[in-house]
UniProtKB/TrEMBL annotation:
Keywords: Cell membrane, Membrane, Transmembrane, Transmembrane helix, Transport. The lineage of its organism: Bacteria, Bacillati, Bacillota, Clostridia, Lachnospirales. Residues 95-296 form the ABC transmembrane type-1 domain. Belongs to the binding-protein-dependent transport system permease family. PANTHER family: DIPEPTIDE TRANSPORT SYSTEM PERMEASE PROTEIN DPPB-RELATED, GLUTATHIONE TRANSPORT SYSTEM PERMEASE PROTEIN GSIC. The keyword Manganese does not apply. It is found in: Cell membrane. The chain crosses the membrane at residues 9-30, 101-121, 133-153, 173-191, 231-253, 273-299. It is a multi-pass membrane protein. Part of the ABC transporter complex GsiABCD involved in glutathione import. Probably responsible for the translocation of the substrate across the membrane. This is Glutathione transport system permease protein GsiC.
Amino acid sequence: MLRYIGKRIIGVIPTLIIVVTFVFFFVRLIPGDPARLVAGPQATIEDVQVVREELGLDKPIHEQYITYVTGLLKGDLGTSLRTKRPVAVEVSNRYANTAKLTLLALTWSTIVGVLLGVWSGRHRSRWQDYTGMTLAVSGISLPSFWVGFMLIMVFSVNLKWFPTTGADSLKSLVLPSIALGSSIAAIIARFTRSSIIEVLKDDYIRTARAKGLRERVVVWKHAFRNAMISVVTVVGLQFGFLLGGSVVTESVFAFPGLGSLLVESVNYRDYPAIQSLILIFSLHFVVINLIVDVLYAVLNPEIQLD
């Protein structure tokens, strides 16, 4: 297991190099001059040039790239052009909020999605199946920003049960987590249903039923574990999407997380912050994929980690 993890970590290095290079050059295609934004609208051309030199933006692009990579190797993510503080500090202040929101959204969406999927797959082509898949299709079809606005209108403006913005308490996480996790729950439900239907066709399931076992035991003890192998992949990928794809939801709820920080950084042409955030989102996917591969062996020992 340790050898396998070591090989995967080494294999990640080329991917990270490509990501760092692509992001570095891509963000410089964003229209606008960061030096002008830092200097202010009243600054003269000479003032803007001084700021450009201070930020190192006057250097050739390859020198800027070498400086950036050298800083990364030293653990330095750079200094935010917007706040003049280290990017690592800016990220650390927001990371905990996004992590809490993501974990809450993933937890409830996984539980609801798996239960709904098992319920639908167990009662295939019956009213339970039609009801479950109608809910799933609705969850996938409704955009998260619309769900967020509706939640704010009903539960914050009219009923006044939850706050509309902020991340000060657990109550402030409820509505954003519902908006963020509704589509995830629908996706998990559909995958779980398909997996359950396929597994229930296997010979060992027919054998279990022939032994007189109750249907609940057949589904949850024999079918559920094997059905979860493909679902784990979906959950892992969705976790990565949640961490990096909460931009819209965080913007709707003015939630102080990584998503809203990315929007602010793009609006300000904050190159160091944009580069660091995208790199962090990429690392999330790499780590999550590794965890998913390891979980395969936990769910099914017959799977070999080669």
